[in-house]
Amino acid sequence: MQFLFDDYRLDTDRRELLHGATPVAVEPQVFDVLVHLVENRNRVVAKDDLIASVWGGRIVSDSTLVSRINAARRAVGDNGDEQRLIRTVPRRGVRFIGQVELQPVRAAQPHASSADVRSRAGAPSERPTIAVLPFLNASGEPEQKYFSDGISEDIITALSKLRWFCVIARNSSFACESMPMRRIGEELGVGYLVEGSVRKSGDRVRITAQLNDVATGNQLWAERYDRRLSDVFAVQDEITEAVVAAIEPQLYAAENFRAQRKAPESLDAWDLVMRALSHFWRVTREDNAVAQRLLEQAIAIDPDYAQPHAVLAVSHTFGAHMGWEDTANAVAIAQRAGVAAVRADGDDAWAHLALATAHAYSRRLDDALAEFETALRLKSSFPLAQGYYGLVLAWVGRWQEGSQAARRAIQLSPRDPFSAIYSGVAAYAEFVGRNYEEAMRLAREGTRQRMDFVGGYRVLAAAAAMAGELELARATLRELRRAQPNISLAWLARELPLPDEGEFQRFLEALRRAGLE
Questions:
Q1: Parallel/antiparallel/unpaired status of strands 101-103 and 16-19
Q2: Burial class for 364, CB neighbours closer than 10 Å (0-12, 13-18, 19+)
Q3: Residue ranges per domain, the chain?
Q4: What is the pLDDT of residues 48-85, one digit of tens each?
């Protein structure tokens, strides 16, 4: 589409801005800001809306946002004093106010190469969007599936660290493994798929991998690796580099990507962590306990390996949140494990998530928010961090941001076992904002997905009581007691780290109205 305004032509297909017949040099991010404002010229675009569209929901400072908006003004001959075309609306956002004429692009587009088209597939922020399917376990032994899943998960983690990719979260891509390629593209909104197989035999491993273009069905790259098991981490890095090179060769050449991570000293430790994650992602009390035992074994083998410390911390704080563990004991373990994870690898997003959750349940909420933001800077496509971040934002009263973060988590991983929890977080944020109908809708979605989701039942009972729907509140309380027999007002007062006493008392009063004692 071409947008014509004030002697300027904005061509979104060619990604060109012309003043008359003269091209205007515009940085890619500034171009994206301008396009979003022009496309949404019928309304004021809020800061969060702009960040979600242009930066994919990553943490962006106010100064960065202002500089990009000012650059967009300069590109179209405007400035902050005149604001002829781009107007700032105080406390609300920004709006494009110029008169715009739409002109469809001609069918022939000689300047748009196939590489340009592929690089735009599926991602509104112009980043390639990619999903990594679980690699096929070709060993013939079902109990080895965790190993092939672990290969896939590590590749997802490596790709997620790259700013030029939007990577679908592990749980959603794994849920689509049996679907045809085109349907996966539709379900997840991706332009590319990575898939492969793993055959493990003795001390040898064979890994095959391929990259497919979803739109055309073409295979862009494929390779087979026959290596010793001790070389498995190097193979993962080679696969990641090859995927990057196949999708964005010019960026690859310019930035010379190398996977930056601290691999474990022992393959046995990695093996135990992959087994643990296969249990952690099942989101049950029993599996959480199994995951913790496996992670403790991994730490005993390799104390300087960050990931088992990190996942152990998160599993304990999650257990406390679900009422499965004593909070004081769980938080003490999580605090030690979170600190150990960050010391072992300060560039690991899981490590900062671990420390963030430990801080949150220790009522050090400012420290928690800082650690969440670090985790999301390191790995923007990290729904678990987004979900927890949303919860703590709601705890400190920033409920709009909390709701947005939780919804971002759902968007990143719509088929995630943790989606119920993200819905519950969004529900609580809306409860804080006194939007009881929306809180009930979201909480119902969470409890529909997981019948044992205590957080969803707590919010649904409280919101229903505040909305005057006491019959629903009492029925929900019965379900809450079934899922969490030890629930009481005293338990909540003791266990929930809510800093705002007034907000905390309102939540307790809502549950008291529902019948909780």
A1: unpaired
A2: middle
A3: 2-103, 116-255, 262-371, 381-517
A4: 778 877 876 666 677 778 888 988 999 999 988 889 99
Q: Which tokens sit at 301?
A: 């083998």
The alpha carbon dihedral of 239, 245, 248, 253 has a sign of positive
Would you state the CATH architecture of domain 381-517?
A: Alpha Horseshoe (1.25)
Using alpha carbons, list the distances in angstroms from residue 24 to 17, 100, 151, 284.
5, 18, 45, 56
The topology (CATH level 3) of 262-371 is: 1.25.40
* Contact indicator for 93, 49 with CB cutoff of 8 Å: yes
What is the SS3 assignment for 293-347? HHHHHHHHHCCCCHHHHHHHHHHHHHHHHCCCCCHHHHHHHHHHHHHHHHHHCCC
Task: Answer yes or no: same fold for 2-103 and 116-255.
Answer: no
Contact between residue 291 and residue 311 where contact means Cβ atoms under 8 Å apart: yes
CA dist 194 → 32, 177, 215, 343, 507 (Å)? 27, 11, 14, 32, 45
Digit-coded pLDDT (tens) for 231-290: 777 777 777 666 655 554 433 333 333 334 566 767 788 888 878 888 888 888 899 999
DSSP code, position 44? P
3-class DSSP state of 439: helix
Distance between CA 472 and CA 254 in Å, rounded? 59
Q: In this structure, what are the phi and psi dihedrals at residue 168, rounded to the nearest 5 degrees?
A: -70, 140
288-323 pLDDT per residue, tens: 999 999 999 999 999 999 989 999 999 999 998 888
Mean of pLDDT values over 121-147? 71
CA 399 to CA 407: how far, in whole Å? Answer: 12
- Span 2-103 CATH architecture: Orthogonal Bundle (1.10)
For the domain 116-255, what is the CATH superfamily, name and number? TolB, N-terminal domain (3.40.50.10070)
Cα–Cα distance for residue pair 468/513, rounded to 1 Å = 9
What's the predicted TM-score (pTM) here?
Answer: 0.58
Own/partner pairs, 172-177, CB within 8 angstroms, 24+ separation: 172/131, 172/412, 172/413, 172/414, 172/415, 172/416, 173/131, 173/132, 173/133, 173/134, 174/133, 174/134, 174/149, 175/415, 175/416, 176/131, 176/133, 176/415, 177/133, 177/134
